[in-house]
Amino acid sequence: MAALFILAVSAVLLLGGAVLAHLIGAASILSFVAADRVRFLAAAPQRIIAHIDLFSIMSMPLFILAGEIMNRAGVTKALIDLAMALMARLKGGLGHVNILTSVFFAGISGSAMADAASVSSTLVPAMRKAGYTAQYAGAITAASSVIGPIIPPSIIMIFYGAMMNTSVAALFVAGIVPGIIMALALFLANGWLAHRHNHPAGEKVPAAEVIRRAGYALPATVIPIIILSGIVFGVMTPTEAAGVAVCCSILAGIIYRQMTVRKLIESLERTAILSGSIFILLSGVAIFGYLAGLEKLPTKLAEVLIGFGFEGWKYLLLLNFVFLVAGMFLEVPVALALLVPLLVPAGISMGADPIHLGIVIVVNMMLGIVTPPFGAALLVVSAVSRTPYWGIARAAMPFLLVQLVVLLILTFVPELSLALPRLAGFIQ
């Protein structure tokens, strides 16, 4: 009854244009009344504070700040120049450059939308000038942007870790291998399409120039190395690593002579806005999670799904479908806030590992943003590159099919996600 009341109230508030965090919180509080659980509302503030007063979640605004500073600090050109020196000589080289740039960006911003926008404004015009179609250039840009939140640092993983009380460090380490596999799959797809469509190769860059560009890009490339090695070897917690990332990003901006007081203020303002919206959403989720625990909604949902035959691999397929569709229509934090508290505990009760589920969910959400008809990354690339949306969407289909195959492999071979965290001692 309470679940039905939540859905009804949520629908009314949503149609009325309510903010999602307010919607979740209001619907949950009213559901306490409907479920005759009003006496438990006295503990709701404590539950909210306990849900967001976590040491690991402190890393989220710091990683956001590091990414915002990096986007304004002249790092983009250095990374693209290095990728061009390493990959442009190959057939379809600029496509490889596009993917490798996204890998570099993944270790800095952890945001698919930021990566898609940055690369669209720089590499898409270069690819069109070199002879690629605008549709293909936009498609590979959108497809490769999904790597950003898979390879750490990842804001989505921090968000998931906060909701499920799961180690963020373990999630970060677990994302390394899946992110590399996704990148390799895109390299192979681009290589095959390059030979099929006779895409051009770029000019060979002399070894001395490669070394020069690598040295110039060193301040940018060393940051993810410091972050990952510090977390993997236990030298730093994710929060400490985030603080180091902020300091390194400011230093990189000074080295590239792009850092100004105004840009730093803009980065801080943007970080405050993004962090505030996420924390408000987490507060609404905390109330909903409190009620879900009292009503045993995850357990009841698991029993219903098992009754319909959705358990084991069937449940994993259902989970993939739900989060993939959610990623197409909803903002990532919104989709996670609505679905994770209900669906993930049910999966864990069936024996799934929360770290593995976290990686699968992140990959699903990212593929959702490159899936028509409402893929957000496709829309961003279309707007920035001024290329028709459906042309990019059609050209992205081969990449999306390859990425879906990778998703299924990651779903049904958990060790690809869990081997490295286990080796690092984060899980048994």
TrEMBL record:
InterPro entries assigned = DctM, TRAP_DctM
What are the entry keywords? Answer: Cell inner membrane, Cell membrane, Membrane, Transmembrane, Transmembrane helix, Transport
**Transmembrane segments annotated in the record for this chain:** 47-66, 103-124, 136-162, 168-193, 214-235, 241-259, 271-293, 313-343, 355-380, 392-413
Domain of life assignment = Bacteria
Q: How does it sit in the membrane?
A: Multi-pass membrane protein
Reply yes or no: does the keyword Transport apply.
yes
Keyword Transmembrane assigned: yes
Subcellular location per the Swiss-Prot or TrEMBL entry: Cell inner membrane
TRAP C4-dicarboxylate transport system permease DctM subunit domain ranges (all copies): 8-416
Q: How does it assemble?
A: The complex comprises the extracytoplasmic solute receptor protein and the two transmembrane proteins.
Family per similarity comment: Belongs to the TRAP transporter large permease family.
Matches recorded under NCBIfam families: dctM
The function of this protein is: Part of the tripartite ATP-independent periplasmic (TRAP) transport system.
- Name of the protein in its database record: TRAP transporter large permease protein
